[in-house]
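Entry 14. Structure prediction run on the chain below.
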Amino acid sequence: MSEDSQHYLDKKQFFQQLLTIYGRKPVLEALHNPQVSLYKVHLADSNRRDGIVDQIIAAAEAKGVEIAWHERRALSRISKNGKQDQGVAADLQLRAYRPCSDIDSGALQRQPQSYIALDGVSNPQNLGMIVRSVAASGIAGLIIPRKGCAALSPLVIKASVSRPTPSVSLPNTYTRLHVAGCSNSDCLACDDRQATSAPAVCRRRSSGSNCSQ
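Output returned:
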């Protein structure tokens, strides 16, 4: 692979790890959180330089985060929510958000890790609460499909209270679970389609599977 191609891939992965949040208080809280990395703060040039806007500017400068000024319409295109962004947005750098190819099946066999794989979680607030729970559990990471699940968004970040969680993305959940099953790994899943009040828990290895209540 040429240096130019690697540079393009590195740049592409960097921007895929960015998530734009908006609103004065959420941005200020992110700036004050030592566990959150920020790439850039965006401000509307129509903002009055007083109160919380001055606090945001001071916090960004103290943290060494670049500040970009925009016309109001331009900022609305960045935040994608001009009615609620309050003239403020920021790009969070989600360093732990990586493609599923970063999961090394060989390393998993040497040192087993536990992951939570999602499918069909369409409510951003529910996804945010799952992120918060996974972050507090010690589980290695969260597998989020690009399709069939809520995308990482400001609503998800708000519900998760901005907890950093190792996450990977993939085309769909079943692709990754198939790879895991072929790597002699355990896959546990809840199936709510059973004809009982409690969901069944299915355990799968490459040699077979079984389900129990």
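Helices lie at 3-16, 24-32, 52-63, 72-79, 105-110, 124-137, 154-160, 173-182.
Filed with the rest of this week's runs.
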